[in-house]
Amino acid sequence: MIYRPDEKTLLAFANLKGNQNFKMILLWLADCLARTREDGSTAKEEYMVRWCQGQSQDLNEILKVAEDSKRL
Asked: Could you read off the pLDDT of 19-32 as tens digits, one per residue?
């Protein structure tokens, strides 16, 4: 589980938003999220579906923090 970051951590994310390397990492995480969702939708085993759901939730939270930091 990814918990909501404090203000200092959000500011750190906001300071990184102009960094091209950080943008590449965010794009990679977004791609991981899309692939994990696809894997979860095609998985036959229940444990894999649940594993993909949990991974998707965590990736989504990280990307949400990065997006929320833009509003600072």
From this structure: 999 999 999 999 99
